[in-house]
Amino acid sequence: MIDSMKRRIKISSALLIAVMLLGLMTGCGQEEEQYTSPNFDESNKIGTVTDSATESNATMSDAVALASVTNATPSDATMTDALVASISDASAMGMYDNNTYFNNLAGFRINGDEVWTFFDEEGVASASGQSRDDIDNLWSGLKTPYDYDTSYAAIAYNTETGSNIIVSYINPDKYLIEGLNAESYLRKSVDRYEGVVVRNARFAGDDYTCVDIPKEETGMGRRTQFAIDKEGLIVLITFTTQKDEELEEAISLFSRLN
After folding, report:
1. pTM of the model
2. What is the pLDDT of residues 15-36, one digit of tens each?
3. What secondary structure letter does DSSP report for 177?
4. Least packed by Cβ within 10 Å: which of 45, 115, 179, 193?
5. Residue 212 dihedral angles phi and psi, to the nearest 5°
6. Other C-beta atoms within 10 Å of 192: how many?
7. Where in 112-163 does DSSP place strands (E)?
8. 182 CB burial (10 A radius; 0-12, 13-18, 19+)
9. Maximum alpha-carbon separation in the chain
């Protein structure tokens, strides 16, 4: 009986993590000044969504297809040898260089610009509800995402609209859900929504599972998630677009590493 209750609590926590964080992020996007800035089928394309039957998913298909045009060529050639070496040596949490985030585990980068920037450790801790020490330990390599049920590698936000991009890791070994993987995680997370379908997508040079939830369903902006299994972890990329911002704009910040 106790084990059953723990299982239900753990499952509920797993499904609510993204929603809780997005609610916090909406507020953070409106108060970005209090934080300092630091540091998603054609297999040969970066972005194609299969089975995009509904209007919202057709829009997502357009957005991911845009990424295949704008980021079809890796930009690693512009990086110095020292930076390439640093990325290779970085922990699973990734690393920052100026206003760019590099994720070696999933093989992508997020390129900030004049309106898109990143939360520092304090900002990520505040938005995620984790302690500053937890974030510091993860980002410095003293701890790994295998030590936590959920960990946050990066949060990018638009200083004008409050839209945000969250890169997080789900550790299936920490959840009492048998066979939890990227696809099953997303399927469980959208059970409450009517007509939302889990689909496959070629994004950032790899095969992801994705969902697209209209803002009318979330109550806090359009939410689009891409998930992939990597080295025993679920890499989860969550886009929340606010106001009139297009998903294409956020997706265009991504490019592959190799």
Report:
1. 0.75
2. 454 454 445 444 444 443 332 2
3. -
4. 179
5. -135, 115
6. 11
7. 116-118, 150-158
8. buried
9. 58
The b-or-e profile of 134-157 (16+ CB within 10 A means b, else e) is bbebbbeeebbbeebbbbbbbbbb
Half-sphere exposure of 133 (CA within 13 A, CB side): 0
Find out whether 17 and 186 touch, Cβ atoms under 8 Å.
no
Amino acid at 187: R
Q: Quick one: tokens of 151?
A: 């960990």
pLDDT in tens, 86-121: 555 567 888 888 899 999 899 999 999 999 999 999
The C-alpha atoms of residue 23 and residue 18 are separated, in whole angstroms, by: 9
Match 């890791």 to its residue by tokens.
Answer: 169
Of the candidates 191, 257, 174, 188, the one whose C-alpha atom is nearest the C-alpha of residue 227 is 188
Q: Which amino acid belongs to residue 258?
A: N
